[in-house]
Design brief:
- The longest helix is centred in the last third of the chain and has 28 residues.
- α1 packs across α2 and α7 packs across α9.
- By secondary structure, this protein is mainly alpha-helical.
- The chain has one domain.
- It is built from 9 helices and no strands.
């Protein structure tokens, strides 16, 4: 377990640093990074799924997901990084708490997921995102009233973390249906790229739709 955790931790740190570096370097670097990530995740999806209709729907969803990420990067850098941070914290928190405390299984879809891991996902995502917000609250593209209302903002973080965990379970379902452990082997300790961003590809469309609905309501 320790060796697996070390490998996962090192991979996570490298991914975080790479992502933040690419995002901060400028839009052109980010667009190239986004295109490569879309290409790899699409390849992994097509390789994993057998049914043609599910393949097509999956690619369309991935396109919408990556477009949502593109949209948020252009709208507000700090807000984009906050979403990434919540998703990564959700994944790491779930892994650490799940292995330390174990306990009842969360779902038959993914036997390694536990209820303690779910709690850990919420706890770590809350801690890291609140620290982040304290530093960049004046720059994040979120209604200031929402930030000032602690309860509403905590609920938003928990919702994003929940969607990230649901996304993880959905990809786990397809992997289980395809009788494979990982979507690929490009990332040591994680498997494929989809194994790493399974939560994010659901979170960005979710936040995009929530933002769109809130804009429409205000019109």
């Amino acid at each position: 377990m320790l060796k697996e955790f070390e490998k996962r931790l090192i991979s996570s740190i490298i991914l975080i640093l790479t992502t933040f570096l690419v995002v901060l370097e400028g839009k052109i670097f980010f667009y190239i990074f986004l295109f490569i990530a879309f290409f790899i995740s699409s390849y992994e999806w097509l390789k994993m799924i057998k049914r043609v209709d599910i393949k097509i729907l999956g690619i369309l969803f991935l396109f919408f997901s990556f477009y949502s990420a593109y949209y948020f990067r252009n709208q507000n850098l700090e807000g984009f990084l906050l979403i990434i941070l919540i998703c990564i914290s959700t994944d790491i928190g779930g892994y650490i708490f799940g292995n330390l405390f174990k306990g009842p299984k969360l779902s038959k879809i993914s036997p390694n997921k536990t209820q303690s891991g779910m709690i850990g996902s919420f706890v770590l995502s809350l801690i890291t995102s609140l620290i982040f917000v304290l530093q960049f609250s004046n720059k994040i593209y979120i209604d200031q009233n929402l930030i000032e209302n602690d309860l509403k903002f905590v609920i938003l973080i928990l919702l994003i973390s929940s969607v990230s965990q649901v996304g993880d379970l959905i990809i786990s379902y397809f992997k289980r249906s395809s009788k494979i452990k990982n979507t690929g082997n490009i990332i040591p300790g994680h498997g494929g790229l989809l194994d790493r961003i399974d939560g994010m590809i659901f979170v960005f469309p979710f936040v995009y739709l929530v933002t769109l609905i809130s804009i429409i309501i205000k019109l």
